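Notebook entry, structure prediction.
Reason for the run: the old model in the group folder had no record of what sequence produced it. Starting over properly, with the input documented here first.
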Amino acid sequence: MNVKPDNDEYFEQDEDERESAGRRKSLIALAVLAVLVIAGLILVDRLRSVSALQDCLMTRATNCAEIDPPTP
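New structure, fully documented this time:
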């Protein structure tokens, strides 16, 4: 004997699955956006340091290299 469940159960399940998939897509998009923001900040920092070095070199200075203090 085959008993078919109500159609409402199928619609609820599909809606729940759609909500779950939507949340998953949102989390993936948020993760991708976070990675892009972090990569952009790293790129800006590197470009700033290169720009400072170039500015120093254009003044024809001879001591443009960063000197790291010795560690004890």
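Summary: The mean pLDDT is 81.
The old model has been moved to the deprecated folder.
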